[in-house]
Design brief:
With about 250 residues, the protein is α+β, with helices and mostly antiparallel strands. About 35% of the residues lie in helices and about 25% in strands. The protein folds into two domains: about 1-165, Jelly Rolls, CATH 2.60.120; about 165-250, Winged helix-like DNA-binding domain superfamily/Winged helix DNA-binding domain (Arc Repressor Mutant, subunit A, Orthogonal Bundle). The longest helix has 21 residues, at about 145-165.
Length: about 250
């Protein structure tokens, strides 16, 4: 994987970074930009902390970003694209544990054991930044908001797993899944009602602990009730309030 990245110090004045940032401003898609800027840290101040970012070359659908058992040395921040986190059991059954997109951080599961406990696989053309963990630890010690952001990420992942382990209907699981995706993309400045599903139905079913046929039936039922509109892999939420009623038990408080 070493051939995939270029090492850059974040940030050196005059050094451009892929994205919408410049020599003075962080990219809006950076997972830590809000935490840093809220504390008054811009690119110039971050450079003094010796923060190093490795801009990876693009991953394509099916490429592994890391594999289960790989040594943990870094976190990865998605600049664009989509990634699934999964585990493959002995019978080659793949259990999907989560989906992540622009602005998300992946790899936090490796912090404790110092090895990645799961696989991370690109679902689409995906651009990432590799954030060496020692540098992030230094950043967190200097900027409490960064430490709080990491704790929020860990808490969110734990909460998602706990909610999916409950005894909920297929309708509730699919409704909550769609609402969660929309909320996440809306938080990055995209449409609050439309999403593109980079993942196939089989992956959605695995994540929701349902059969693929069940997911298809629920989506068809939602379409018939005019709760959603579907065009290929593009989904529009026509009645978010009703979907929220259906999936309320699985939504974050």
């Amino acid at each position: 994987m070493n051939a995939r990245y270029q090492v850059e110090r974040l940030p050196e004045p005059g050094c451009s970074m892929a994205g919408d940032g410049d020599e003075s401003h962080l990219c809006s898609t950076c997972a830590f930009s809000h935490a840093c800027l809220a504390t008054g840290f811009d690119r110039a101040r971050l450079s003094a902390l010796e923060c190093v970012v490795e801009h990876l070359e693009p991953f394509h659908a099916g490429d592994f970003i890391f594999r289960r058992g790989d040594p943990f040395h870094a976190l990865f921040a998605l600049r664009s694209g989509a990634v699934k986190i999964c585990r493959t059991e002995g019978d080659n059954h793949q259990q999907v544990l989560g989906f992540y997109g622009t602005g998300d951080v992946i790899g936090v599961g490796g912090i404790y054991s110092q090895r990645f406990p799961c696989d991370a696989i690109a679902l689409d053309v995906t651009y990432l930044c590799r954030l060496p963990f020692p540098a992030i630890s230094t950043l967190a010690s200097q900027i409490p908001a960064v430490q709080q952001h990491l704790l929020r990420v860990l808490s969110e992942r734990l909460g998602s797993v706990q909610r999916l382990n409950g005894n909920y209907s297929a309708d509730a699981r699919v409704a909550a899944f769609l609402l969660d995706l929309v909320a996440r993309v809306a938080a990055r400045g995209f449409s609050p009602t439309r999403i593109h599903l980079s993942m196939p139905r089989t992956d959605i079913a695995s994540y929701l602990r349902l059969a693929a046929e069940t997911v298809s039936r629920v989506m068809s039922r939602f379409r018939a009730r005019k709760l959603i509109a579907v065009r290929g892999r593009d989904v529009e939420l026509l009645n978010p309030d009703r979907l929220r009623d259906i999936g309320q038990a699985l939504l974050p408080l």
